[in-house]
Design brief:
The protein is of the alpha+beta class. The chain is built from 15 helices and six strands. Helix 5 (82-93) packs across helix 8 and helix 6 (98-105) packs across helix 7. The longest helix is centred in the first third of the chain and has 12 residues, at 27-38. It starts with 6 loop residues before the first helix and ends in a 7-residue tail after the last strand.
């Protein structure tokens, strides 16, 4: 016989919904995940901190392109939390009525009645309230996907894509595709020489320019954040995904500000921080303490400098090209053939400073930025 059409709507007061299957991770867990991301943790570390798997953390970060958008704001007391739904399920199993549950939770009886009717499990043909299923249905109903402005406004989309890609045109008006961009490999961003054009506009430049090109057309307006979301967040589908290679950073995913401010220590240990420099070097009273730096010039050329802190006597380090520069292809993590790698600079320092008397070779502070020597 089967059930009559519209039986679920008559039973629950809402449209039919697909089966949840295995309960997914709750939205509040994902919200806690993005708060940990904002602190500077990686997606794997943040997932472990909130009790989720590393695969789930990587998926959340990838699907949102590193942009939490609304996920950082906590839920208001207007909505029932998962903990409240667990209490409702427990009291319902104990046979408590709607008004009693409402009194214990401090809610209106209509809220509890609506919750028990709309978000209950219906697989058995009757209403059975389970907290996990109710939370899944509530989160699904709270999602109100808004169509991206770039997806519905073709004229605006073409304007943004043309300037975002830095499109170059021939005299006859036909576009020049430019060099082939490097393929995506995980989260790594392409090298600068792999980007298509250096004439690409930034999203903020595009957003500001629209006001001058279309002063009377309010439909030709979009914020730079909306452009970033159209590029990074999966499911938007408004802009071509490969256009992220034209951004100044070239990142495939957005990086939180806290994480971008972090800087790896590399091989610098706390024992050689600039704060550990001898006091005699700090007050410039005793000669023989030097400061070094590396100056990068055009064509990837470089020269090193050594400045004596007391007398300001300056010595220059010659850093010639190494054999094979410009001939052999560049190798990732290979030798720095440009002549300014760590080994080349070390040899140049040794060859230059050892020509001085020993009493003038007390210490060397190499500038690495952020107070590191």
């Amino acid at each position: 016989m089967g059930r009559p059409a519209g039986w679920m709507k008559a039973l629950t007061g809402r449209a039919p919904m697909k089966s949840p299957g295995k309960p997914s991770l709750r939205r509040d867990v994902e919200r806690l995940f993005w708060r940990e991301i904002a602190k500077g943790l990686t997606s794997e570390e943040a997932a472990i901190a909130v009790g989720a798997s590393q695969a789930a953390g990587s998926r959340w970060f990838r699907e949102r392109g590193g942009m939490p958008t609304f996920m950082l704001a906590p839920l208001t007391g207007r909505y029932l939390s998962f903990e409240k739904r667990e209490e409702i399920a427990l009291m319902t199993a104990q046979g408590a009525g709607v008004r009693e549950i409402a009194r214990r939770l401090g809610r209106d009886p209509a809220t509890i009645s609506r919750e028990l009717r709309r978000n209950a499990a219906t697989r058995g043909g009757k209403l059975e309230y389970r907290a996990s299923v109710a939370q899944w249905k509530a989160e699904l109903m709270m999602r109100r996907p808004k169509t991206a402005k770039l997806a519905v406004n073709e004229r605006l989309r073409e304007y943004v894509q043309e300037r975002l890609s830095g499109q170059v045109r021939r005299p006859d008006g036909t576009p020049v595709p430019g060099p082939e961009a490097a393929p995506w490999k995980g989260r790594n961003k392409p090298r600068r020489e792999d980007r298509r054009w250096a004439t690409a506009w930034s999203p903020e430049q595009i957003s500001n320019r629209l006001r001058f090109d279309f002063p009377d057309d309010e439909a030709m307006r979009i914020s730079h954040e909306a452009i970033y979301q159209a590029l990074y967040i999966q499911g938007r589908g408004a802009l071509k995904r490969e256009l992220v290679a034209c951004l100044r950073t070239g990142r495939a995913l957005r990086v939180p500000r806290t994480r971008s401010r972090q800087r790896a220590n590399g091989h610098v240990t706390p024992e050689v921080m600039i704060s550990e420099r001898p006091a005699e070097a700090e007050d410039r009273a005793v000669p023989g303490h030097w400061e070094g730096d590396l100056i990068i010039g055009t064509g990837r050329s470089a020269i090193g400098t050594l400045v004596e802190r007391t007398t300001r006597f300056t010595m220059l380090l010659h850093l010639p090209r190494m054999d094979g520069y410009g001939v052999e292809p560049r190798v990732k993590n290979g030798p720095a053939l440009a002549g300014r790698g760590a080994e080349a600079v070390k040899d140049a320092i040794i060859g230059t400073i050892t020509t001085l008397p020993e009493q003038l070779r007390r210490s060397l502070t190499w500038d690495r930025g952020r107070g590191r020597a």
